[in-house]
Amino acid sequence: MRTTVGIIGAGPAGLLLARLLHNAGIDSVVLESRDRAYVERRQRAGILEQGTVDVLRGAGAGERMDREGLRHDGIELRFARRRHRVDFPALTGGRSVMVYAQTEVCKDLIALQLKDGGPLLFEAEALAVEGADTDRPRVRFRHRGAEDVLECDYVVGCDGYWGIARAAVPDGRTFERTYPFGWLGILADVAPSHDELVYARHERGFALLSMRSLSVSRLYLQVPADTDADSWGDEQIWDELERRFETDDDWSLRRGPITQKSVTPMRSYVHEPMRHGRLFLAGDAAHIVPPTGAKGLNLAVGDVVTFARALSHRTATGSDDLLDAYSATCLRRVWQAERFSYDMTTLLHTAPGATPFEDRLQLARLDRIASSRAAETDLAEAYTGCPIG
Fold first, then answer.
1. What is the spatial distance between Cα 177 and Cα 232, in angstroms, rounded to a whole number?
2. Order of strands, edge to edge, in the sheet holding 97-99?
């Protein structure tokens, strides 16, 4: 099998890259180790930055997002029983975010790829990337019980931290931080208790009120990293959420049937460089952020937009300049997102063994955001996203 770009992984990064390349007249093949049903139900991110929304619209993948997604013009911070709303459009010149689950993004992109894109092979396990430092890299893969080879001009690894692409980059340097807590997340069949996301800093730990739709709530509690989700009973979860979201007004938390529980670990990770020869890394294959800043999916979008533009530039001009700059271009954006995600995580979570001095510093930082337009603008600009490309 022969193609211009071999894409490993059919998450949002790989699928969007295939769409961008198709629109640019560049052929590709996508290899995905899981089946279609798994990819379309894999619960991940739910917040799309303004730039990501614009990219999906421009790629022809925004119709259902615009119809069913929930535009949010701000978030609410809660601390010391206070409530403070951050108004995104007022602080950023009109930018906002969209609540639209990664599962839905994948469904939309899969439908487009199968309709008019290049080959998308499910249950095709990539086994190795060979010849990345030559002008004819190859991906060995197994599909329907038989081994095959995909010959390419370029390979893009969108196969996550545990995939084969990252391991095929020799002599890489990694930067990492593991946090001593995680998020106990639930899906509940109940209308959200607030019309925007609520980030709560509480002495008992962080809590987040989010949503998947107007009838399904997504909520999180900070818990120790080794927590078993099944060790928390449903009423215990609701009681703890109610404590952490408490305010001095009459706001109340709606309760409903919990349909899913899981614990998400918290990590910061960057792999440098994001390229070796004609092998390029994108998304979680190159970087991971704690979910506090809602950056993971959006960073992956930035990576594949950067690659697609660089390859289109090479096709049009014959110049490799933008491809050669791929890693440095992406990493500038990656490190800003890492910085913001780290800041949000340390701002809102209660660290084990935190001293009263550290607790007061958190409250002072939150009060600074609530009282300073400059500090509030910095948060709003970072949350709605750095420019892509």
1. 27
2. 47-48, 97-99, 70-72
> Which residues are known to be catalytic?
72, 199, 291, 295, 383
Q: Which residues pair with 260 in a beta bridge?
A: 187
For 181-228, the pLDDT digits (tens) are 999 999 999 999 999 999 999 999 999 999 989 999 999 999 999 999
> What is the structure's pLDDT at 389?
57
For the sheet with 207-211, list strands across it.
82-87, 74-79, 197-201, 207-211, 217-224, 173-188, 258-272, 287-288
What type of residue is 31?
L
C-alpha closest to that of 268 among 384, 346, 365, 203: 346
Q: Which residues of the chain have pLDDT under 50?
A: none
The whole-number pLDDT of residue 388 equals 78
